[in-house]
## 1
Amino acid sequence: MSTEATGSLRAGEVTVGIPYQSDAGLIFIGRIHTPWAQSRDCPRQGDRVHGPICRIEVNERWRAALQGLEAHSHAQILYWMHLARRDLVLQSPRSNGEVTGTFAIRSPNRPNPVSSSLVAIVEVGADHVLVRGLDCIDGTPLIDIKPERCPEAPRPKGD
């Protein structure tokens, strides 16, 4: 990590070297571990209060960025649905013959399979975050973690 004051850095800001960039410029900052091995096993939308605890592991390079997250009760998790189809523009999500455009539904099958889940934070560790409310398969690449304000909902307790 670098703490040099260069360019547009402000006092106290820290940078890390950026790894090789993928075709879209995406940098995966970790992996998500859930109880679901296949997409058909995942819940449609995660249960932020009673759903299973899932583990978000943050790569070593990005762990310092977790500092201060423990002050928040919820976070928006952005992830890359790496096993999703990317070629469907019209879909029949209920397999009933009714067709809908990909951008009009929340299917994981999209040209750029970016997804997000609003989760409840259970614990923030040095290298991980435990959350409730995810709906992705085990091993999903993590794009970003963004704190959310949900003052009406208390932080869930761990099991």
## 2
Amino acid sequence: MLIQQTREHLHTLRLTGMLQALDEQLEQPAMAELSFEERLAILVDREVLYRENRRLERLLKTAKLRVGACVEDIDYRHPRGLEKPRMASLVALEWIRQSLNLCLTGPTGSGKTWLACAFGNEACRRGFSVRYLRLPRLFEMLRISHGDGSYTKLMNQLLKTDLLILDDWGIQKVSAAQRNDLMEVIEDRHGRRSTLIASQLPTDHWHEYIGEATIADAILDRLLHGAHRINLTGESMRKTKEKLTDRDRLV
């Protein structure tokens, strides 16, 4: 009866991890050989682990990463301009703690989106909030928010996000309204949060892409000053994988 009351209290207090661990202990007679302190430590550790896993699930769900990628699987076999020492430094995510930006540029198929999502995944695992958006999608969300009155709410959500990943930067022309919205997003986050840009366009062409010199200068000054940059090179990773697959079939 006492155990049942304890289980009910754990359930009421939403100590799900401890409740699961308690049930496991009751099913394992060998646990009785442990001291009270040891069994209590197991219960507390399980609750901590349960909450960490739930937090990670929530962060990944909110991030909406386009692909399931992780930094442990970064492919260094193919020459793309990735240097292990530098990547190890970036994977430590000190640049996010310092509210700095990261720019990934390179041709189609070079792995920009995959790398961006790998950084996003690592950020979630370390407790940072992340949001992945294609830039055209962000522009559409901002356009709708102006019409339905949710603009301030959306901007606050973006500002509170530790790492904002903007993919497909530079694939479509920017209108005057979109330029202004982009300026507001970058200005809000400057010095307070980190932004990761993934683009086919080299950074030297971003000024022309944004257009309107004054706003372009302001955006790029805030976005690129002190930012880390990775310029991916080499053959498309998709083509390389296709070649490897074909070779495997011939063996």
## 3
Amino acid sequence: MAEQKQQQRISGDRLQAFIASAFEAVDVPRDDAKTIAQLMAQADINGSEGHGVFRLPQYVRRIKGKAINVRPNIRVERELAAMALVHGDNGMGHLVMKFAAEKAIEKAKTAGVAWVGARWSNHAGPASLYATMPLAHNMIGLYMAVGSANHLPPWGGLDMLLSTNPIAVAVPAGDEPAVILDMATTVAAYGKVKTKAQRGEMMPEGWMMDRTGNPLTDPKRANEGFLLPIGGYKGYGLALVIGMLAGNLNAAAMGRDVIDFNNDDTSETNTGHAIVAINIEAFQDLKEFKSGMDMLIRDIRNSQRLPNVDRIRLPGDGTHVARADREKNGVPIPEALLAALDQLAGDLKIAKLPR
């Protein structure tokens, strides 16, 4: 609580306007800048702090380094009734994945289920941004991606050949909030490591390990070790197959071809993503599905608890709480991040983020 009181609270509208102005300052077309800004601000509002405005200085550096195409021709390369392959033309990942998600939703309306892959994209923020897009159309959303830097070796190895390779699933309900699973296949996403480093905080044991097998808790020494997979070898296997589906299947970067966008501001990444939209009405009556979801959610939430457990949580509970708080009170911006954004504003000769 004490830490939160020290943080500035910035409204989502102000945050979005600042992000858009920064992108316009580096020649991103106004409409595209607004789209990217809306998605990035939404990430912060949803509580995905490692994937919102925190990433803005990095995105700007990569645009200045000519690593990202600010006027991409995002297009469908291959297409059948229930699938498409999108070429992102090295555009901002937010633009590519919004295009891909909308294509998947459009196709699922008639095909029932649609799988859309994307290649020649870039980092696109949190997975849940895109998995939740089908919810507005009474569809289930599934998103996968190859992470934008390798921080995970094969189980038992040391060579960094895999990334955090996230997966997100969003399932609508009726009166209950949607179930939204958004997770990296590592114990912690690397964005959380970066935010810890910026704030001068230590990591808990279990996030990373050094090359001798000992716990690594100083985020500023992250390059001396690697992230740990969820569930041991099972998490490694999950990271591998997600990478195959979002990377290899789309002829996107995977394994040793992945560019570390944290330390490279000039190389194209050819990031791969996949989005699946599932039209619930193709499977059953929508009202019956939502009623069944409500019943399941309530059964889980009201189930017997272990001693000292205050409540049973479901995936997405944290997002719903964060959104309600931040839409009302603004997004908390740590002092270190605020200073970085002020410096960025000075470099770009734009107005600072309003307090």
## 4
Amino acid sequence: MNSIPKTHTIAFYNIENLFDIENDPNTDDDDFLPYAKKRWTYKRYKNKLRKLGSVISKIGDENIEIAPVIVGLAEVENKRVLNDLVDSKHLSEENYSYVHYDSSDERGIDVALLYKKSVFNVELSETFSVYLQKENGERDYTRDILLVKGKLSGETLYIIVAHWSSRREGEKETEYKRMAAANKINTIIDAINNKDSTAKIIVMGDFNDNPNNNSVKSLEEKSRLYNPFKTVWSRDKGSLSYDFEWNLFDQILFSTRFFDTNNTSLKFVNAEVFNSKFLTQYHGKYKGQPYRTYVGKKYKGGYSDHFPVYITLKSLKSFVD
């Protein structure tokens, strides 16, 4: 009989292109092969797995020595890399399982959910596509949205994991894509609420938008979600840096029902960016920014171009499995 921890860390991490070293003829993974310009070798792949595992095992408040119970991930290629990740040096004893589906994303990168099966019991999962069109009318394929339903501390949770379209072609020029993704999530949440009027919902992801952008604000307003990262983000703190300005594209929002302590067994404690010094560049003009695996084609051997983010939830009741 195992007693359930009283405090839970729930995290999200964009792990910057976790590709295996095999060529997938159905996706654009050609940069991440041993003989490509990036020279993505088995040694580099294993090094990244080890480093990512060390980060994931540590995410959370300093006084909590337990690895996160749930971790949403962005930029994973397939089940093989997830198997290798959960079996890597720092995670093999954490007994993580995962939920993952291959999407139609042109680069072949997806979202996934790691979870500790001894604490979080998955009941169902499914994916939803975001329909986008190019200017010529062709379908523009992007990452699917993942929905996982399960029980934590006796509480049913609906967890949505997303990775919205990038700003590569310009923030304003691509805003409609992120609004389409936000609208899709609002539709998913609406359907959940129609079936379960007491649903506790958590939405996590790399939204490629900040807390003050319209797409993220629409989740708050239309789906009545609380965004604790609005007050975490500042001039000196974010999850990624661009042109020496901090952005907080990585966020976790949740139902305001978590504040109704008469009707929830999980209470929100805090939200934070996990930006411990070991995750940063130590020297030079980029000091303090995420220590990346690559800068362009140049291999740096770091972790990711994003910091993880997390929230802490406290059990209000004692549960034993």
